[in-house]
Amino acid sequence: MKRICLFVNLLLILCAAGKAQLPHQSLPSKDMIDSLKLYPLHVLPNNYYFNNIGFFCKKEIQFEKATKIPLRFRLGSLEYTDYLEQKPNAIKKP
C-alpha cells in the first residue's frame, strides 16, 4: 500500500512540474509598453573613451602613438597606483 501511495504522489508531482514548463499562452495586454521606445538605444561614438579620460592619460597615449615607447606618469609607487586603480591583486602599502 505504501508503494502505491508513493507512486501516485510521484506521478502527481511529475505531472505538475511538466505542466509548469509549458509556455504561457496569453494575449499581450494593452498595458504592455515597449521599453526601447521609452529609452532608445544609443551607440557610443568611436572616440568616446579618449574624450573621457584624464589629461595625463591622453598625453601618454599620444606619446606612445608617436614614439612607440610606453611612457607612464605615476603619482606614487606602482603598488599604490595599482591599488588606486583597483587592479586585481593590488595591495595598499603604508
Helix share bin: 40-55%
The average pLDDT is 75
User: Strand portion, in percent?
Assistant: under 5%
> Helix count, per DSSP?
5
Rg calculated over all Cα atoms: 30 Å
Low-confidence stretches: none
Number of DSSP strand runs: 0
SS-based class: mainly alpha
Order of helices and strands: HHHHH
Cα-to-Cα separation, first versus last residue: 74 Å
- Sum up the overall morphology in one term: elongated
Largest sheet: none
Describe, in plain words, how this protein is organized in 3D.
By secondary structure, the chain is mainly alpha-helical. It has a domain at 47-94. 50% of the residues lie in helices and 0% in strands. The protein is built from 5 helices and no strands. The protein has helices spanning 2-20, 35-38, 48-51, 55-67, 78-84. The chain is elongated, with a radius of gyration of 30 Å. The termini are far apart. The model has no long low-confidence stretch (mean pLDDT 75).
Provide the descriptors you would attach to this structure in a database record:
elongated, 94 residues
List the helices and strands and how they pair.
Elements: H1 2-20, H2 35-38, H3 48-51, H4 55-67, H5 78-84
